[in-house]
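Forwarding the complex inputs:
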Amino acid sequence: MKHKLTAALLGLGLAVTTAACGGGGGGGDADAAAKARGEITIWLSNNPEEVAWGKQMVAAWNAAHADQKVTAQEIPAGKSSEEVIGAAITAGNAPCLIFNTSPASVSQFQKQGGLVALDSFEDGKSYVEERSGKVAEQYRSTDGKYYQLPWKSNPVMIFYNKKAFAKAGLDPDKPELATYDQFLATARKVVAGKGAPFAIYPAPSNEFFQSWFDFYPLFAAESGGKQLVQDGKAQFASEEGKKVAAFWRTLYAEKLAAQEKYTGDSFVEGKAAMAIVGPWAIATYKDKVDWGVVPVPTSAGKPAAETYTFSDAKNVAMYSACKNRGTAWDVLKFATSQEQDGKFLTSTGQMPIRDGVAAAYPDYFAKNADYKVFADQAARTVEVPNVPNSITIWQTFRDAYSKSVIFGQQDPGEALDGAVEKVDQLASQS
Amino acid sequence: MRWLLGKQPAGTAFVTPYVVFLAAVFAYPLGFAVYMSFHDYFFAAPGAIVDRPFVGFENYVTVLSDPAVRRSFLNVGIFLLINVPLTVVLALLLATALNTAIRWRTFFRVSYYVPYVTASVALVGVWLFLFNENGLVNSILGPLAPDPSWLVNSKLAMPTIAVYVTWKQLGFFILLYLAALQNVSKDLYEAASMDGAGKAKSFWNVTVPGVRPATTLVVLLATVTGANLFTEPYLLTGGGGPDGASASPVLIMYQRGIEQGNPDIGAAIGVLLVIGVLLLALLQRRLLERES
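Prediction (whole assembly, two chains):
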């Protein structure tokens, strides 16, 4: 029926109509808004632990600021939070702060005129850089400003199922997973020894963000911390990128990783003996899997202290529809203070992007040794590049990766070479 | 006022709300989509000063030179070639069977209709259970199972989706045919019987011509529905895999327009799809009406 297409066109049309009609708090005079105080609304992610933290944070703020009340709500339901936020920007009804802004979407939101540069506050730049240290540099936009506050990361590492390893005759306390050769040998033993049907099961589907959980962590590790695109040039077709692609191709070709999408949690359900994921998942694995964790592999087996990985960060951004930006900035600083970051860490197990996070909360890490390794890894994380057309770049890369590495319809090296020109062109656009 | 309201002011008044509805909900967005497709257009915050220059056919050139878009149109062509004939044949045969005096007739009618009214997300789970690598179908087929499996096989992914959609929507088309069958005169069947026609001949010479207007409708609806395929490839094959073999134009439109923030490109794909569907519908109507 025509209605689906019409609905799609209608959606585009209505969004544009709303934009054209204006209204709804366009921000007005930026200087006045930066000083304005009063009630604000914030959005939190739908993760129950984060919602619980957000509620206590808001209650603490409201108790001390009756004239600047904060109202918090979960991000409205949608296919993804990025799409919901994009629509809210267009409609002019985005909240003041969103504590779940994907770094990959920042360039797009910025292009839409939807974000407030945090540098517009007197202490904006210094606050971001003092809190996050040198990691903050990865979150700076191409115009040199910060449109996002680096908030929390989930350094991606390799989780393994100790029981599955033991069943396959492997030592669960000393897994050999440091080099590609070791990893492949272990994967073969796990499958041959019926530890699990697959050694590892990253989502093989074609969504642009899936490469963050297969190729990208290993590329970050192999390259010593390079981003997918640096200085406007694609980096993934380098020797390091091709080694990573060849490694994953071997896993797929030998059916040690699955080509089919799995609708559940393959690690929890015993379909895979390993998973590549951040510490947010520990709460999910609790009481279900006897797990261990190691850094992602590299070809030569770099020491853990030198191994980089993908950050899987979510940040806080201020949206241009916000009228009381003075209050919003103060709330942002309050919510990312050392005290609130500590509560966030305790509630969720996710790492605040603070300089020296392990040293900042020694008691927590003393009691929760499982998380210490992630805190150490958090110092060596690589973010998605903050460049124009970020999502299109990731989709272009994913298409090439999917075709060659997952489905073996092209040589992986050739596929990566083929994607470079388009990615360079996309990154150079404004 | 007469020039404005015409000879029948009351009639005009009754029609006006619907005309306004059509203009606001269908015509304006469609027109705006065409406008977007000719501009360097992106969504912006209210009050944001942005430049959206006229770019002529640039977006169309981008779309038509994009291998993923061309592949998606080819994919949907394959889908329609399987889905439409299969829908017509199965719906007509099953409707004819369900129109006869068989036991449990109501049960069967409801059974065929249930998939149509059930959410795709729920049904996809069933289909995955049947067609994934370790699914029921491959277990039955054993060594004859395809490798790679159905949904990750670049040759079989789209046909598998086409069969799934046919199954899911069959109940609706059976209903259309059941309604049409009520209008086929019983006298014609009696006359055919008197002339010595068996069940097959009677079906071919009485039923098929008798439900031709319904067939025209079924073909048209199945074509338009198929051309707007989105949910099934998205859910079954994780975004159009493998290697774009199951990506549909609407899926690509969603990726480019919504996910990647290029609504001008999405609009251009949409306009091309509308034109394609209109041409196809016109062609089908000509062919089917000529036969009648």
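Chain A has a mean pLDDT of 91.
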